[in-house]
Amino acid sequence: HFIFNNDLKPEMKKQIAKRLLNFEIVKKETLLKISLEGIAYDDTKYKVKALAAKPFAYIYRNILDRKDLFTAMFNIKPHKEKLDPSLKQMNWEEARKHADQTGAAESGSNEYGIEDGYFNSKIKKKLKQREGYLKNDAYDQSPEYEDLQIVLDLLKQSGA
Q1: Which domain of life is it from (predicted)?
Q2: Residue 115 contacts by C-beta under 8 Å, 6 or more apart in sequence?
Q3: Range of the domain at 46
């Protein structure tokens, strides 16, 4: 809802919009992308497109709000995996031991504790080329760290 929030400082909205536009999922949502571009860029073309899209974005947001309300009211939940009923009878230590045994049995092909099927199909081929690729990275100089700073600034601005 931040797009429609006029209480946020324009610089804050611009910073958030620019960051969100880095994500592929945002780029695929046309209304969202156009709306964010109108906030992020000081360009008449983007501003006009965003202004034209705003009523549609507002309606779409309201539809999603109603969907959320409907889902909450009728307690609609996503499909859950079926749990082994015997697990409910176990205390914490037994459950922990069972988890350790299951993990060991299902991840025997690798030292990382990742299920064999997933490891062998998705990770194993890329492991050598990825070795040490983050060794020179600093966690305090990353987009995610900047995201945290944006959230903290947003909370400060809202008086939280």
Answers
A1: Bacteria
A2: 106, 107
A3: 2-77
Q: Would you state the structure tokens that stand for residue 86, as one six-digit string?
A: 């015997």
Angstrom distance (rounded) from CA 134 to CA 24: 22
Residue finishing a domain among 33, 62, 77: 77
Nearest Cα neighbor of 147 from 59, 28, 18, 1 is 18
pLDDT tens, position by position, 11-55: 999 999 999 999 999 999 999 999 999 999 999 999 999 999 999
Distance CA 123, CA 17 (A): 33
Write down the mean pLDDT value for the chain: 89
- Residues 73, 102, single domain; the answer is no
